[in-house]
Design goal:
995 residues, alpha+beta, 5-stranded antiparallel beta sheet, flat
């Protein structure tokens, strides 16, 4: 089984002659390197479960949305040349090869040979009929078509089907399953119907079947016109007729192009290479193409790509729409091109004025002038002629046509901002590179002022009054974009990510989008409630309302898996055209984004149990059910014995649209009643459950948010004999017979276990007390007293009193608490008090920060003062020894099945600290590591402590990082931990009663 890779065929010259196209949809190509059985694809079929079956000339491939599973003769195929795949009414998949058929049953594929190797006859086509009959078309030695039936292992020739009156020979066949009839094209050009053992002449002449089986539609040619044949009545190959007749969605190959008829649109996809065998529109309305050069998947029709291979100049920085709805592309390579909707034209009339690069920020004025940013000014185009506005040696960075008063705003690197209306020209020179940074974007606010983003900060322009935000108040210090939505809210994008301006607090709030690189290069307001963001490797559509409500699903990401293949969206690189489409300039291409065609993936994915694995006695997972078997025989229940009670269930939710982004969620009734958070992992593992019956529920959601059906699997864990009632009765009898001997043995065993646990707990206490002495050594107490004296001498009684109180609280927590383990939250509270005391001593020379990324981890138990030991060492031997002090950062996080606590300092490093140490022996660290060893002996999964030295770019010591990893379920000596939990439960119950 090979992993499917993304071969995005945007370089369409692999398929077409160079220069044949000026744009193309995003296409993914599958070849044997992706796991496909062979590159010459003859057939593609989607079964009722959503799986894709791909027949090649050398084997069969099953595509489950993620991987290919291949089948050959050794797997039950009669021969490797696959002509057809179909599905019977009972769900069985039938594979038709040249020499026979293979039916997928309970034991995999069962081969049924019809012709022997070397035979002059071969099967070309097949159709499912009634009463378990399969109709087969085969070709005889004279290359004429004949018909036979297959049923229950028996084959019967049907010569009457192709014996037309007048001794005409059958050239092509088409089968109408609904009416159980054949349509027959003869060598003389006539078309006959065969039904109920009778022939009927349908068309006399000039009719030809171009394709016999294309998604249950047939293309025919009659009197030099092409038609689509449905139910064997002719319909003109015209979009309106097709739409009215409900023949959607379909795709047909004709005249070196593919016509896609879907919903209310007709899309033409140039496809000038021959070898197309079949076109399939799947249940998600995406198009699959079987050809002699591989399997192609048109991911979506939302994105139309223009690249250098399609004739576009490289490094497009400026995209502008003129008043005639043409799109203009300005390149950093000094070229200007115009797209009129059908062809790309090079424009050269400007070169005699100023042959310079085109930069971002072009625009079309209210009077129809095109304005382009260049190195020394503004290039203008109107009514077929160019003119140039020179502004000296300064680059135009931004051109903005104001919706407030139709004025033009020009932003220059060195000159600042120019506002031009008619013959009036006003300058705001503070917004230049040497003052507050050059202008990168401008947006008008409905209240009559402008938001301005510069390379350094953000400003607001009220008439002639300019307010520049202090750098300390602006998180967007490398800004690129600003947009104002319908509510008047301003949104800012830049290298630091996306920010929203909150008017009530006059501050900027970060919008966190988890996936991808956060830099926002381009931005456009899609409607009153959505923002389109262009980032380094993807597009993001942000739902403003959902974000304000605090929803986690407030954005959608469009990357290569959804059809957007652009890389590094350019600054100010998104514009909206008159039709509501968006043009996006990227480093290697320009892309037209058409949200109105955003129709694919609107149906829920189909969820299937794909494979079941159980853990063997060697602790390795072994396959219980093969993927091929599960396609037809999906178990409603799975029974496991006590030796294989850990089970892993693999699911597949097939979605033709962005199949890699389907996510899965699970729950086990009676154990975990809440659904797990959706994840792309298509498997669920249940480890060592108690004997009994469990119901596992699984569901899946595609990238559109459409949830699948809930798949329910019953798991029956059969108990071992010693886990049954009979065993306990037998044991009771044996105990009565054995008497005191058995009791004595049990007593010895129990006493020995208690003794072992007592020894371990005693060692744990010894280590903990040694750690306590190490933490609160005389040096620390001396420093405390010295600090108190210093505060008193400086007459800072309030600080001295506060210091004494802090120290008392800290000491009381250590002395009063008899628990050797407590939660990470309690440990952090202790560390926080300790750091506050240290900061009262060190002042600005100490800064510390706690970053709690996983709040559930705060409830995990750790040995008391373990983390504090690392913090104390970081302050004592790292930060204190560093000139100017330093920073301590404590991070609590969880990754997979591991709680992670990280203590980082930017001190002098361990090597330099060792040279300074004259008193410390490092016993605290040794005690901690011995403590970890004791706990690890008691647990199957081990805790770890790793210490790393940090270095700067020059290789100099830049601090130390200590990483503590605690596995989920790690026990701090189970009996003691349980005692602590019981005590807390009891205390809580007492408080509730007293209340």
């Amino acid at each position: 089984m090979s992993k499917v890779t993304f071969n995005i065929a945007i370089l369409f010259f692999l398929l077409l002659p160079a220069g044949a196209l000026s744009q193309q949809y995003t296409i993914k190509r599958y070849t044997p390197s992706d796991g496909l059985s062979q590159s010459q694809v003859e057939e593609i079929f989607q079964d009722s479960r959503g799986y894709m079956w791909i027949g090649t000339r050398n084997g069969l491939s099953l595509f489950d949305g993620r991987d290919f599973t291949n089948f050959h003769e050794r797997d039950g195929l009669v021969d490797p040349y696959v002509h057809k795949v179909l599905e019977k009414t009972n769900g069985q998949v039938v594979v038709v090869t040249k020499l026979g058929i293979s039916i997928l049953g309970d034991k995999g594929f069962q081969a049924h040979r019809i012709f022997e190797k070397g035979s002059s006859k071969s099967i070309h086509n097949a159709w499912p009929g009634e009463d378990d009959i399969i109709w087969l078309e085969y070709v005889n030695r004279d290359n004429f078509s004949r018909v036979m039936t297959y049923s229950g292992g028996s084959v019967q020739d049907m010569p009457a089907v192709t014996s037309m009156p007048g001794c005409e020979e059958c050239q092509r066949l088409a089968f109408d399953r609904n009416k159980e009839r054949f349509i027959i094209e003869t060598t003389e050009g006539r078309v006959w119907e065969y039904k109920d053992k009778k022939h009927k002449l349908l068309w006399k002449n000039n009719t030809k079947l171009i394709n016999r089986d294309l998604n249950n539609f047939k293309i025919v040619k009659r009197k030099d016109k092409k038609y689509i044949l449905k139910n064997y009545s002719l319909l003109s190959l015209d979009h309106e007729v097709l739409r009215k007749e409900g023949l959607v969605p379909i795709a047909v190959y004709r005249d070196m192009k593919i016509d896609y008829f879907g919903n209310d649109r007709h899309i033409v996809i140039p496809w000038e290479r021959e070898g197309v065998k079949k076109i399939l529109v799947d249940r998600d309305k995406t198009v699959w193409i079987a050809s002699e050069y591989g399997l192609y998947h048109i991911l979506s029709f939302e994105f139309l790509n223009f690249t250098e291979e399609h004739g576009l100049a490289p490094n497009i920085w400026s995209i502008v729409e003129d008043d005639k709805h043409n799109i203009w592309f300005g390149s950093l390579e000094k070229s200007l091109q115009r797209w009129d909707g059908s062809k790309l034209e090079n424009i050269n009339g400007y070169r005699k004025l100023n042959n310079e690069p085109f930069y971002s920020g072009g625009a079309c004025s209210s009077d129809g002038r095109l304005l382009f940013s260049q190195a020394f000014g503004i290039l203008e185009y109107k009514d077929g002629s160019f003119s140039y506005r020179h502004y000296g040696k300064t680059q135009a960075e931004k051109i903005y046509c104001s919706p407030l008063d139709s004025s033009l705003l020009f932003g220059f690197t060195n000159l600042g901002l120019a506002r031009i209306k008619g013959q009036t020209e006003k300058w705001t020179k503070e917004l230049s590179a040497d003052r507050h940074g050059w202008i990168t974007d401008i947006a008008a606010h409905p209240e009559g002022f402008y938001w301005i983003v510069t390379s350094k900060t953000i400003a607001r322009l009220y008439g002639d009054s300019l307010y520049v935000y202090p750098y300390s108040e602006v998180p967007v210090r490398n800004g690129y974009m600003v947009e104002v939505d319908s509510s008047g809210t301003a949104w800012f994008g830049g290298q630091e990510g996306l920010f929203m301006y909150e008017q009530t607090t006059d501050s900027f709030r970060k919008v966190n989008i988890e996936s991808g690189m956060e830099t926002v290069n381009g931005m456009a307001l899609m409607d009153n409630n959505r923002l389109l963001l262009g980032r380094m490797d993807d597009l993001v559509i942000l739902d403003i309302t959902e974000w304000k409500k605090g929803s986690k699903d407030f954005y959608s990401i469009y990357d290569a898996s959804r059809g957007f293949i652009g890389r590094e969206v350019q600054q100010d690189g998104i514009i909206r055209d008159h039709a509501g489409n968006y043009w996006i300039s990227c480093i290697e291409c320009a892309t037209k984004f058409m949200p109105s065609l955003n129709k694919t993936g609107s149906v829920p994915p189909l969820l299937n149990l794909f494979k079941v694995e159980a853990m063997s006695e060697s602790y390795e997972y072994e396959n219980m059910y093969s993927p091929a078997l599960l396609i037809n025989n999906r178990p409603g229940s799975i029974t496991l014995d006590h030796k294989k009670n850990s089970v892993k269930l693999h699911f597949r939710a097939v979605s033709g649209y962005a199949p890699e982004m389907v996510k899965y969620s699970y729950r086990v009734k009676g154990i975990v009643n809440d659904w797990t958070r959706p994840s792309v992992r298509p498997e669920f593992t249940l480890i060592d459950p108690e004997p009994g019956n469990y119901i596992l529920e699984a569901r899946a959601v595609n990238v559109r948010g459409e949830w699948s059906n809930i798949s329910e699997i019953e798991l029956n864990i059969v108990p071992a004999f010693w886990q049954t009632v009979y065993f306990y009765i037998l044991i009771s009898i044996l105990i009565l017979i054995a008497g005191s001997l058995a009791g004595f043995q049990i007593y010895r065993y129990t006493n020995r276990k208690k003794q072992q646990k007592f020894i371990m707990m005693r060692e744990y206490y010894r280590l903990q007390m040694g750690k306590f002495v190490q933490q609160f050594d005389p040096h620390f107490a001396f420093n405390v007293m010295s600090s108190i004296v210093t505060f008193i001498e400086t007459d800072d009684k309030e600080k001295a009193n506060k210091y004494i109180v802090k120290f008392s609280d800290l000491l009381r927590k250590v002395i009063d608490e008899d628990d050797y383990a407590h939660s990470i939250k309690q440990e952090i509270d202790f560390i926080n008090d300790y750091c506050e005391m240290q900061k009262m001593q060190m002042g600005d020379n100490l800064d510390y920060h706690f970053d709690i990324r996983d709040t559930d981890s705060l409830n995990v138990f750790v040995p008391r003062m373990m983390i504090h030991n690392f913090v104390e060492n970081a302050i004592k031997w790292g930060v204190k020894q560093r000139s100017g002090g330093g920073m301590i950062e404590l991070v609590v996080d969880r990754k997979n099945d591991m709680h992670i606590i990280t203590v980082t300092d930017n001190g002098i490093g361990r090597e330099a600290a060792r040279k300074l140490r004259t008193v410390s022996t490092g016993k605290g660290y040794n005690v901690t590591m011995n403590l970890v060893k004791v706990l690890n002996r008691y647990n199957r999964k081990h805790m770890s402590v790793d210490t790393d030295d940090l270095y700067d770019d020059q290789g100099e010591a830049a601090g130390t990082r200590v990483v503590v990893k605690i596995p989920v379920g790690f026990s701090m000596l189970e009996s003691r931990e349980q005692e602590l939990r019981n005590r807390k439960i009891k205390d809580t119950s007492t408080e509730d009663t007293s209340g």
